[in-house]
Amino acid sequence: MTPRLLPFALLVLALAGCSAPDADAPATVAGTPPPPAAVPASNPAEAPAAGANPGVVAETAAMPRLQARTVAGEDYDLAGHRGKWVVVNFWATWCGPCLQEMPELSALHAMRDNVEVVGLAYEDIEPDDMRAFLEKHPVAYPIVILDPYDPPKDFATPRGLPMTYLIGPDGKVAHQFLGPVDAGKIEQAIVAAGGKVG
C-alpha cells in the first residue's frame, strides 16, 4: 500500500466500526445478555454475537424441547407436533425484517398441511400489548412471548433476529436460518432434508 493511501485506508476502517444505536431496540439490564440485533436481509451472516454472559445458551439441542403458553392462552408443546415440519421463528415487534417475513410465514402455516409455524417473541412485552400488536399484524400461527433474560434452554440464544429453526417430523433440527426467510427457502430446506412439501 502506498504511503498516500494508508491514512485513507485507516479512516475507512475506523468508520466501518461505527454505527448509530438502534432507537427501537430495548434497553439492556446490567448483568444480562443484550437483546439480539435485527439482521439485515442483505447480509445475515454479519449478526452480532450474543453477550459474554455465562448464562447464554451457545448451542441448540439436536432435538429441542419447548413448552410454553401462547398469547391466546393455549399450551404449546413442540413435541406434540411430531410428524410435521415445524418452523420455530424467533422475532420481535421492533425488528423490521421480522415484520416483513410474518405474512409469508403465516401463509405457509395456513396453506401446508405438513408444515406448522410457531412465533417466539423474544422481547420484554406485556401480553395485552402483544395482542394489540397482533390485531394490526395478524398471523395464522401461534405466538409465544419469551423472557429474553430466561430463554428456552434447548435453543441457543439468538445471535440476531429473526432466527428460525426448521424442526423435522422426528423432532430434530433440520436447518437453521439467521436473517429473514421466505416460504421458498423453507420448502427448499425441507426437500434438502428428504421431506416433501404438501
Walk me through the topology:
Layout: H1 5-16, E1 37-38, E2 67-69, E3 75-77, E4 85-91, H2 96-111, E5 115-122, H3 127-136, E6 143-146, E7 160-161, E8 163-167, E9 173-178, H4 183-192
Parallel strand pairs: 1-7, 4-5, 5-6
Antiparallel strand pairs: 2-3, 4-8, 8-9
What does this structure look like?
This is Thioredoxin. Residues 1-25 form the signal peptide. Residues 39-53 have a biased composition (Low complexity). The protein is an alpha/beta fold. The chain has a domain at 69-198: Glutaredoxin. It is built from four helices and nine strands. The protein has helices at 5-16, 96-111, 127-136, 183-192; strands at 37-38, 67-69, 75-77, 85-91, 115-122, 143-146, 160-161, 163-167, 173-178. The strands form three sheets. Strands 6-5-4-8-9 form a five-stranded mixed beta sheet, with helices on one face. α3 (127-136) links the parallel β5 and β6. The chain is globular and about 40 Å long. Mean pLDDT is 80; it is low at 1-34 and 40-55.
Just name the CATH architecture of one domain: 3-Layer(aba) Sandwich
Portion in helices: 10-25%
Task: Enumerate how many helices there are, as a single number.
Answer: 4
Strand content: 15-25%
N to C succession of SSEs: HEEEEHEHEEEEH
At the first level of CATH, what is the class of one domain?
Alpha Beta
Number of strands: 9
The biggest sheet, with number of strands, parallel, antiparallel or mixed sense and barrel status, is: 5 strands, mixed
Record the strand order, biggest sheet. 6-5-4-8-9
Straight-line distance between termini: 57 Å
Instruction: Examine the coordinates and then state which fold CATH places here, giving the name of the CATH topology of one domain.
Output: Glutaredoxin
The residue-averaged pLDDT reads 80
The CATH superfamily of one domain bears the name Glutaredoxin
Structural Rg: 19 Å
Q: Enumerate the spans where pLDDT stays under 50 for 5 or more consecutive residues.
A: 1-34, 40-55
Shape call: globular
Structural class from helices and strands? alpha/beta
